[in-house]
C-alpha cells in the first residue's frame, strides 16, 4: 500500500471528495520536492520566476520548531496556509489535542497530493479523531468550504484559533493567501458575534413574537404573496447618504416599480413626497416604535412586512395591509410558523436591507435594484440620508434621548462593531466603513449568492462594492426597466383570499401551544439533567477545597461529571430551539474551556469545575426566564383573541430521550 493510500484511510471522513479527486485526476510528476531525513519540502517558482525552497534545506525540523514557537497547543483549532514542509504539519499533529481541528489551506492541489505520497502520517493520525481538513483550489472553492465549517457546530472550536502562514505563501500567490487570511478573520469574527452575548435580547424578540401572534392569525400569510411581482422591477431602498441624490428619480418610478424601503428610510421618503409600497421592519428594541412610525400618518397604500419580533405596537398602528414575517433561519420563528399553519418563512440576515432583499426575491422581482445601500461613510463623513433620524438635524419632534441613542452607535472606533474598516468601493479603491457594516455587506453578498435572482443591480452609485450585484446608474435602471405600470398594493391585497375566520383561530392556537409544549419539554428535561450534574459538581468542588488528597474516587467522579456535561451539551446542540436560546452560554463556555482543554492537574480540574458549574447555573436560570416569557406570551395571545387563558395554556412536561449507541457516536463526532 502506498503512503497516499495509507494516509487516505485516516482522512476520508472530511476529505473524501478531495482524496478521490486527487487519486483520479491529479498528477504530481512535475512537482519537485527535496527530502531531508524524514521530511520533505518543495522547490517552487515565485511570480518573478525565481526558484526557491519552501523551507530550510539544512534542518526543516528545527525551522518548524522555531516557526511554531509561541503557538498554544491547548487551542481547539489551527489553520495553516501553505504546506511549506512536512515538518510543520507533523509538529502540529503531534502537539495538538486530539479533539482540536486542523485546517491546511493550499492553493496548489498537486502539492497536497505530493505531500501525502511522500510522507507517512500514520503515527499522527491512526486511532485518533479525524479532525484534519485539506482545503485546496481557487478563492471561490476555499471560501465555500470555510463557510460550511465555520458556520456549523465545528465553528465553536474556532473561538480559540491560531492562523499560521508559511514562508512560501509570501513568495507565491501572495494576494490569494492575504485574501484567505482576511476571509478567515472576517468569517470567524462574524461567527463569534452571531452567537450573541446575552439571552435577554433573544427573550425580548420571543416576547414580541408571541404578542404578535394575534396579528399573524388575522393577517394574510406570506405564502399568499409568492411570486406576486414575478419579472417586475423591485427597488430596495436603504437610508445611506447616497439616497439623497436618487430621490428625484425614485419619484418618477412610483407605480412602475415596487418600492420596498427600510424602516429608517420611511421618514425620508414621506418627507420627500414618495409613498413606498412596502416598509420592512425588523428592529425589536424598546424604542423601535418611536423611531420608526410614531407621529407618522401611514399611507393607506403602503403595506407593512415586519419580522414577528417587531414591537407589538407597530402592526397595531398600521393600516389593513400587514403581513408578519417569520424568519426561516431562527428556530423559534420557524417552529411558530409551522405550528400556526405554515405561514411561510424568509431566510434573511440581521439588517432590514437583508429582509427587504429576501422579500423582493420571494416576490419574484427582476431586476432587484439596490439604492441607498452605501454600507460606508460618504466623503463628507455622513452615515445616512440627510433626512434620516440618524442625522443630527433630524425631525425635531423626536425626543432628544432617542436621537442620542441613535447617534451612540455612530461614533468612530467605539467598541467592536464601530471599529473602522476599509472596503472595496463602488467606484474602485477603498472606502471607509465600520465593522458592523462590513458584516452587513458580507450577509448581503451571501443572500445574493444563495437566493438566485436573474439580475441584481446596485444603483447606489457610492459606498461599498457588493459582489454578485451589477453596478448600474439609477438613471439607466429607470430608462431600461421602469417603464410599465405594476399592480398596486391595494389591488394586490384585494385579490388575496380572506384571512382566518374566528372558528379557525382556536384550532391554530391549540396547535401552537401543543408544538411549544413539545419543544419546551426537551428544555425542561435538559434543565433537570443540569441540576443533577450541578449537585455532583458542587459536592466535588467542596471536597477538593477541603482536602484534594482525600477525595474518594476522584478520577471516576470527575470523569462522570465531565461526561455528563458533554451529554448535556450534545442534547443542546442537536435541538435547534435549545441552540437558539443557549448559544450565548455555549460560546461563553467554550471561550473559557478551550484554553484548559487538558485535565493535567487538580488545579485545572478545579478551574474546569468552576466554569462548568457557572455554565450549568446560567442554563438553569435561563430556562426559567424562557418559560416565564412563553407563559406570559401565550396568555397574552389567548386573551387578546378572546379565549380563556386557563383553558388554553402551556403545560410542559419533561421529555426524556436516551441516545442509542449509533446516535451517540454520531453526536460525539459532530461535537
TrEMBL record:
Segments forming domain 6-hydroxymethylpterin diphosphokinase MptE-like: 208-379
InterPro entries named among the record's database cross-references: MptE-like (IPR002826)
PANTHER family: 6-HYDROXYMETHYLPTERIN DIPHOSPHOKINASE MPTE-LIKE DOMAIN-CONTAINING PROTEIN, MOTILITY ACCESSORY FACTOR MAF
One Pfam family linked to the record: MptE-like
Species this protein is from: Brevibacillus fulvus
Keyword vocabulary terms for this entry: Coiled coil
Coiled coil: 506-543
Official protein name in the record: 6-hydroxymethylpterin diphosphokinase MptE-like domain-containing protein
Amino acid at each position: 500500500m502506498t503512503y497516499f493510500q495509507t494516509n487516505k484511510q485516516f482522512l476520508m471522513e472530511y476529505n473524501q471528495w478531495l482524496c478521490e479527486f486527487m487519486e483520479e485526476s491529479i498528477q504530481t510528476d512535475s512537482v519537485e520536492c527535496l527530502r531531508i531525513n524524514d521530511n520533505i519540502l518543495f522547490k517552487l517558482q515565485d511570480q518573478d520566476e525565481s526558484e526557491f525552497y519552501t523551507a530550510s534545506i539544512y534542518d526543516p525540523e528545527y525551522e518548524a520548531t522555531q516557526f511554531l514557537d509561541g503557538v498554544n497547543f491547548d487551542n481547539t483549532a489551527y489553520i495553516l496556509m501553505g504546506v511549506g514542509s512536512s515538518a510543520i504539519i507533523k509538529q502540529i499533529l503531534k502537539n495538538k489535542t486530539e479533539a482540536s481541528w486542523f485546517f491546511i489551506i493550499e492553493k496548489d492541489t498537486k502539492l497536497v497530493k505530493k505531500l501525502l505520497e511522500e510522507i507517512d502520517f500514520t503515527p499522527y493520525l491512526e486511532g485518533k479523531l479525524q479532525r484534519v481538513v485539506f482545503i485546496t483550489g481557487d478563492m471561490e472553492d476555499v471560501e465555500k468550504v470555510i463557510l460550511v465549517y465555520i458556520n456549523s457546530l465545528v465553528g465553536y472550536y474556532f473561538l480559540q484559533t491560531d492562523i499560521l502562514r508559511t514562508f512560501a505563501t509570501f513568495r507565491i500567490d501572495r494576494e490569494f493567501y492575504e485574501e484567505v487570511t482576511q476571509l478567515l478573520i472576517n468569517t470567524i469574527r462574524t461567527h463569534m458575534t452571531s452567537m450573541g452575548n446575552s439571552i435577554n435580547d433573544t427573550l425580548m424578540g420571543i416576547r414580541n413574537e408571541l404578542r404578535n401572534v394575534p396579528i399573524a392569525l388575522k393577517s394574510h400569510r406570506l405564502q399568499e404573496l409568492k411570486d406576486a411581482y414575478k419579472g417586475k422591477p423591485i427597488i430596495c431602498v436603504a437610508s445611506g447618504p447616497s439616497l439623497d441624490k436618487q430621490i428625484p428619480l425614485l419619484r418618477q418610478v412610483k407605480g412602475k416599480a415596487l418600492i420596498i424601503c427600510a424602516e429608517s428610510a420611511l421618514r425620508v421618503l414621506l418627507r420627500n413626497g414618495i409613498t413606498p409600497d412596502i416598509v420592512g421592519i425588523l428592529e425589536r428594541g424598546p424604542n423601535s416604535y418611536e423611531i420608526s412610525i410614531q407621529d407618522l400618518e401611514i399611507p393607506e397604500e403602503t403595506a407593512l412586512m415586519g419580522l414577528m419580533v417587531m414591537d407589538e405596537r407597530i402592526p397595531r398602528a398600521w393600516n389593513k395591509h400587514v403581513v408578519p414575517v417569520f424568519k426561516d433561519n431562527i428556530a423559534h420563528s420557524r417552529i411558530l410558523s409551522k405550528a400556526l399553519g405554515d405561514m411561510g418563512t424568509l431566510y434573511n440576515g440581521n439588517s432590514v436591507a437583508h429582509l427587504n432583499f429576501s422579500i423582493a426575491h420571494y416576490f419574484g422581482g427582476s431586476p432587484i435594484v439596490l439604492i441607498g445601500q452605501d454600507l460606508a461613510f460618504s466623503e463628507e463623513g455622513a452615515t445616512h440620508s440627510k433626512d434620516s433620524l440618524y442625522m443630527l438635524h433630524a425631525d425635531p419632534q423626536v425626543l432628544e434621548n432617542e436621537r442620542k441613542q441613535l447617534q451612540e452607535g455612530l461614533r468612530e472606533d467605539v467598541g467592536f462593531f464601530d471599529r473602522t474598516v476599509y472596503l472595496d468601493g463602488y467606484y474602485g479603491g477603498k472606502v471607509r466603513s465600520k465593522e458592523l457594516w462590513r458584516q452587513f455587506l458580507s450577509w448581503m453578498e451571501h443572500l445574493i449568492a444563495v437566493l438566485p435572482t436573474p439580475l441584481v443591480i446596485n444603483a447606489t452609485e457610492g459606498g461599498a462594492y457588493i459582489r454578485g450585484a451589477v453596478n448600474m446608474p439609477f438613471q439607466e435602471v429607470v430608462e431600461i426597466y421602469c417603464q410599465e405600470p405594476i399592480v398596486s398594493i391595494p389591488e394586490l391585497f384585494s385579490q388575496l383570499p380572506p384571512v382566518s375566520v374566528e372558528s379557525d383561530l382556536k384550532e391554530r392556537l391549540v396547535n401552537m401551544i401543543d408544538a411549544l409544549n413539545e419543544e419546551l419539554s426537551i428544555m425542561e428535561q435538559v434543565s433537570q439533567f443540569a441540576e443533577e450534574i450541578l449537585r455532583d459538581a458542587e459536592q466535588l468542588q467542596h471536597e477538593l477545597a477541603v482536602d484534594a488528597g482525600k477525595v474518594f474516587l476522584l478520577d471516576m467522579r470527575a470523569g462522570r461529571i465531565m461526561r455528563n456535561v458533554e451529554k448535556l451539551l450534545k442534547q443542546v446542540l442537536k435541538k435547534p430551539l435549545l441552540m437558539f436560546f443557549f448559544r450565548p452560554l455555549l460560546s461563553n463556555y467554550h471561550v473559557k474551556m478551550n484554553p484548559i482543554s487538558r485535565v493535567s492537574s487538580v488545579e485545572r480540574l478545579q478551574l474546569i469545575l468552576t466554569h462548568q458549574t457557572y455554565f450549568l447555573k446560567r442554563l438553569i436560570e435561563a430556562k426559567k426566564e424562557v418559560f416565564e416569557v412563553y407563559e406570559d406570551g401565550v396568555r397574552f395571545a389567548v386573551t387578546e383573541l378572546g379565549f380563556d387563558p386557563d383553558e388554553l395554556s402551556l403545560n410542559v412536561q419533561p421529555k426524556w430521550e436516551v441516545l442509542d449507541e449509533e446516535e451517540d457516536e454520531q453526536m460525539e463526532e459532530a461535537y
